[in-house]
Amino acid sequence: MNTNKRIIRVLVVIALLFLALASYLLWFNMFRAKEVYTNSYNRRQWESEQHIKRGSIYSSEGELLAETRISDDGTRTRRYPRGRLYSHVIGYSSQVYGKTLLEMSRDADLVGKGNIGISIGDNRPGNNLHLTVLDYLQEYAYDQLDGRHGAIVAMEPTTGQILAMVSLPDFDPNTIEDDWEGIMEDKSSPFLARATQGLYPPGSTYKIVTSAAVYENGRTTETFDDPGVFKQGDVEVNNYGGEAFGNIDIKTGFEKSSNYVFCTLGYEMGAESVRAEAEKFGVNKDLEFDIPTSKSEIQYGRMTDLDAALVSIGQGGLVMTPLHVAMMASAVANGGKMMKPYLVETVTTENGTIIGQTKPSVLYESVGPACASYVRDMMIGVVEEGTGTTARIDGITVAGKTGTAETEGGEDHAWFVGYAPAENPKICVAVLLENNGTPGGKTAAPIARNIMRRFLNE
Amino acid sequence: MGMDRLKSAGYRKPAYLLILLNVLGFGLLFINKENNYNLNILYTGAAVLALFLVMYTALVLGRMGDKFIMLMVFMLISIGVLLLCRINLSYAFRQIIWILVGGAVFFIAYFVYYNVKVWSKLWYLYFIGGTLLFLITLVFGTTVYGSRNWISIGPISFQPSEITKILFIMCLACYTSGSWSKPLLGKVKPKWAALLITYVFVGFLVLQRDWGTILVMFSIYLFMIYVYEPDKKLLALNICALVIIGLLGWRFLYHIQVRIANWIDPWSDISNRGYQIAQSLFAISSGGYFGRGLGNGSPYYIPLVHSDFIFAAICEEMGVFGGVAVILLFFLIAYRCFKISIMASDPFDKAVSFGVTVMFALQTFIIIGGVIKMIPLTGITLPFVSYGGTSVVISFASMGIIQAISAKTERKGEPDEHK
Fold first, then answer.
1. Of A18, A36, A42, Cβ closest to residue B331
2. Is A127 helix (H, G, I), strand (E, B) or coil?
C-alpha cells in the first residue's frame, strides 16, 4: 500500500532528524563545550570560587607571583606583585573578563578541584603552583628587551624547563578591568603572548633544521660557488646585503649565513625532504604546553621545490613561534632529542605537600646524536667566526645562529637562537625583535649573550 | 482475563524500571543536603508513581491498545517533574495537578474519539473552531515573551494555538482520507480548500508572531500532502512558497532577523539578545557526558528553564548521555505512533494518527534543536517534560486519540467492549 510506504519514509526522515539532534549534542560536547564553558559570562566558573581561596603562584626561587586576598566583607582580589612581568605567562583571572594562560589552564589546580575533604568554613584553600621560571632571569630578560616589541624564551635544553619567557608589549594584570578597552583598541596587540602565540618567519635560524636535513641526505662535503643570489624560475633570493661569498663549503655557508647555499640545498633536496625534516622538529604539529600555543607550520597546500628553497632559509610559507625556535636549538643541544617544554614544576597544597610534579619527557627524537653534533659544530662556528660573534662569552663556548627575517611590507625581524656551554648545555635562549630592521647578529645576539652569561654566572 | 494480563512479566518488567527510576531520582533529590530533606520531594515522586500505576493498570486491564507509549510518556514525565522539583518545588506541585488533569483528559479523549463515528464528516466545525480560537486570542490574548498567544480566564491561562493544531490536523485528515469529497461551495476542490485553510491559519499565527507553531503547522501540512496528495506539483509549489515566505520574513521581519542572528552568533550580543541561548549552552557544556549530578547543577541561570529550556537543565545535571536518552525516548514514542498509523485500517484514523505523530515529533525536534543551537530558537514547549498546563493537557489529549486508534486496531474483529 502506497500510503504506508510514504508514512515509513516520513518515519525515516523523523529518525534522521532525531539522529541529527543526538549527534550534534555529542559533537558539541566533544569539540565545543570546553570553549563555551570558559566564556567569561558563564557564572558557573566562579561558583567553585565562592568558598575557596584561590591558590598562589611562585617562581622557581619561591618569589610570590600571584595571590588572592580576601577582605573582611568576603571580596576576593587577585594580586600580581610582579605586575607586568608575568602577564604573558600567568595571564589574568578576572570576574569580568575571565581567565587566560596559566590562570585558565591550571584553574582546576588553583581552585583545588580534586582535593578530597570536607570544607569547613568559607575559605578552603586551593593549591599552589611553583613555576620553573627564575624570577631574576625573567626580570633581567625583561630589561634586556627594553620596551622593544618581541619575545625572549630561555629554557634548559636537557629538561625542557622554561627559565624565562617574556613577550612585549604587555599589560598589567592588576588593573585589567580598568585598562581593558584601551588594550583591546591598541593596534600593537598587548594581549598577544608573542613568545607562545606569535607566528614569525624564523629566517636564517631555520638553517639549523636545513643543516640536519643536509647531514641526513649525506651532502655535507659539497662545495658551492656563491654568486650572492639564488635564481630559479621566478624566485630570486639575495644573500644578506647581497654579498657574494665565492667558493665555499657548507660550514662556511652556515657561518656566513649564505642564502645561496641553503636555497640551493633545499631546492635540490626537494619539497618532500624539506617538509619531512621540518616535521621531525615539530613543525605542522600542535604543541601541547602549559599555556596555549600557536601551531608552527608550513603554510602551503602543495609545496613545490621552489617553495622548499624558501622554507630552507626560514622564509616563504614557514612561520614559527619564538618558543618553538628555542626548542629547535635545544634539540640540537640535547643530542637530537627535543624535550617537551614546561612551566609548572610542582603543585603543592596549602601546607606544602607536593601533589603534582612535572617530569621531563622527550617530545620528539628529532635527529641522531651524530647529526646533532654536526649541526652543533657549525653553530659554534657562527659565534666564533661567523655572523654571531657578538654572542661570544669569555671562557665559555657558545653555539648559535643568527637570523634576519624579511617580512611582507614591514621591517625585518631580528633573530638569534643559541645555547651555552656548547659541550654541556645549561641554557638555550631565543630572542626575537619584531620589525626591528636590524640584522640579528647586531641586536638580538648580544641580548641572548647577556642572558646566558647572567644565568651561567649565577 | 484482565488480571492475568497484569501478572504477565511483559507488562510488569518495564513498569518496575519506571518505578526504579522514580525511587532513585526522587530519593537522591531528597537526600541532597541542599534541599534540607524536604519530604515534599518524596510526596511529589509518590504522586507521579501513583498516577502512572493507575493509568497503566487501566490501560492494561481495559485493553486500550498500545501499552508502551504510556510507559515512555511517564518516563519523560518523571524526568520532567524530577527537574521541576529541583528547580522550584512549587512548579512541581502544580505540574502534578496538570498531570492529573491531563490524565483525565487522556481518558476523555480516548473514549470520545473511540465512540464518535462522525469525525471525518466535520471538517467545517474544525475550521470554524480553529478560527474562533484565533479570534478570541487576538481580541483577548496577552503577550508573553513577544508572542500574543495566551488567553487568561481567571487564574488559568492557556495557549489556544495548542488546541488549534489538533483541530487543524483533524481538518486536514477529513480531506486526505477522502471523506471530504464534495467541492466547497460547489466550485473549490477540497485540495485547494485545504491549502486555503492552511494559509489562513498560518496568517492568523503571523499576527500572533507565534513562529514555532507556524513552523509546526506548515510542516504538518507538507508531510500530509507528501503522503496523501497524488499531485506532486502541489507539494513542490508549497515548498517554494515556504522558502519564499521564509526569505521574505528574514529580509523584512525584525523578529526573525533577531532569531537568525542569535542562532549564527549569540556571543557578540551575549548580555542582551544572545543571553538566553548562551546560558543554555553554558549549562550543556558544564554537564559533560554524565552530568554534574541531579541537584548539583545551576540551572537557575537559564531563563525559562522550567518550560522551553528544560532540556538544557537535563543536559547539565544528567549529562549529554542523559540528553541523548531523552531524545531516544521521544523517538521511540514517535516510532510507536507511526506504527499505529501504519496499522490503522480506517483512512481517517490513519491520517489523524499520522498528523498527531508528526506534530509531536516536530515539536520535539524544533525545541531541542533550538535549545542546543542546532537550529534557530523558536519558543515552544517540550511535550510532557516542560512545565505548563496547556502543554501537558494537550499532549495527553493527543496521546488519548492515538491510543484510541491503536485500540481500534487491536480489537478489530472482536466484539466491542466499550459500547
1. A18
2. coil
